Structure formats: structure tokens, C-alpha cells
Amino acid sequence: MLNKDRGEKVPRLTIQDCLTAHVLAVLNHCLERPIKRVSSVASYRTLDAPFNHPDVAGKQYYMVRTTFYQGHCTSTANIAGIIRDSITTHRDVNYVENWLTVCGHLMLAAQSAGQTYFFSGEEDTLLVNSMA
Known about the structure:
By secondary structure, the protein is an alpha+beta fold. It has 3 helices and 3 strands, in the order αββααβ. Strands 2-1-3 form a 3-stranded mixed beta sheet. The protein is globular and about 45 Å long.
């Protein structure tokens, strides 16, 4: 599935989408238990939202989870398309606002309890810092 085959109404695949899909396909070929999810670090810096201020220093990112169901991982191109579609779908202002609200609450609760908040990995998940 090349960009020209995806049509005009769907977002273009990025190099990161294709690279992540290739890594996932290779790992799934080698591992006993397949990777079923990809968690991508995505940027919301360009999102037009009331909570997003261009003059704020720091990393403006959130996590996007893509789940692969049986039959999804038929080709690297198909995997890349699913990843891109998931990132695009989750760029919705309401989704990002809710994600930031919940994450901020959990971080504050952990800090108030003298704990740390850590994004731990999961056994069947590939964590990707794409910022795409």
C-alpha cells in the first residue's frame, strides 16, 4: 500500500510509519508471542487547541496506542497504514485534552503520594518515540 494507493482522503504514510511497521513485522516473525500493540509518542505542538500555546517551552507530546487484531498484520504496508490512521484519529482535540487531563491528574496524585509516575512497557507492546 503505497501513498498513491491510499487515496486522497487518508493521511500520507511517513517514513516513521513504515520503519515502525517493518520493525514490528520482523519482531513478530522472530518472537514466540506476537506484538499486538504499538504505543507511539506523538506531538500535539501543531494542534489548534485552546490548551496548546506556541510560546510554552517543553515537550508537547502524548501517547497514541494502536491495537492490531488478527488479520491486520498481513503486510508491512498494511501495518504502516493502521499506525498512521490511528495517530491521525487520535489527533482529535477532545482526545488529546482528555489524555492530558487524565495523565496530569495521575502524575499529580503520584507526586502527592510521594511516588513517581512512570510509563512502563507492556509485554506485547512496541513503544515508539516517533513524534510524527
